[in-house]
């Protein structure tokens, strides 16, 4: 049975934000208040900005494309380091990067997903997120910076909706820390409860424009089969998720040990 822990940080202007800590990991628990995931921080404002500051996040990893970052730059408290990591730089048509069209052009997004293409496109997107050269470079930089002994404070990573590029970052990190696949899937699927309500106003606007919102649903939420496509891609190309880290990302055993030392708290410590 998956471990049920409420790790959400409810900020109106920064949806789908939660602490990855507290989950059972290899020989202990994932450290709390050390690493967070979220959707875009481009609209962070007001009291939410102060609440965010209190989380102690000192480094934000933005997994969006350069175009997404330029169009909607993050709004962060002073002093927070921002690291741009373009996971999908080598893909010009990836649906994960196109979800932002929900606000700007929902009709075009829906048209691209007709005839049941949404689910297939999402599975392809997750394979890209694992295997594209730009994705491998981005996630390598992400992991190396996470374990950099000079880095202090908590870390947060995000993309636009915090579910696909962010979903793989969270899933791969938790798996490498020794969290069970069942708990990793549960964290991944939590996005459906945390994100979809925040998208309802945009869906209502799309519906008012005559858009069939049923076409949009496969790309606005997450499904177990999407994460399975990513895990299968890692196993097919690199033998395992750990092989993905070592062969795909070029991390070594000492890097993985440093990752576990930093983010897993063992009993008795």
**How many distinct beta strands?**
8
CATH class reads Alpha Beta
> For the largest beta sheet, what order do the strands appear in spatially?
1-4-7-5-6
> How many domains, in number, for the residues?
1
The general outline is globular
- Low-confidence parts: none
Explain this structure.
The protein is of the alpha/beta class and 269 residues long. It has one domain: Protein-Tyrosine Phosphatase, Chain A. The chain has 14 helices and eight strands. Strands 1-4-7-5-6 form a five-stranded mixed sheet, sandwiched between helices. Strands 2-3-8 form a three-stranded antiparallel sheet. A hairpin with a 2-residue loop joins strand 2 and strand 3. Helix 6 packs across helix 7 and helix 12 crosses helix 13. It is globular.
Task: Give a quick rundown of the structure.
The chain has helices spanning 46-54, 66-71, 95-98, 101-104, 106-112, 117-131, 133-146, 165-176, 181-194, 196-208, 217-220, 224-238, 241-248, 253-263, and strands spanning 18-19, 24-25, 28-30, 35-38, 57-62, 81-84, 154-158, 264-266.
SSE inventory with pairings:
Blueprint: E1 18-19, E2 24-25, E3 28-30, E4 35-38, H1 46-54, E5 57-62, H2 66-71, E6 81-84, H3 95-98, H4 101-104, H5 106-112, H6 117-131, H7 133-146, E7 154-158, H8 165-176, H9 181-194, H10 196-208, H11 217-220, H12 224-238, H13 241-248, H14 253-263, E8 264-266
Parallel strand pairs: 4-7, 5-6, 5-7
Antiparallel strand pairs: 1-4, 2-3, 3-8
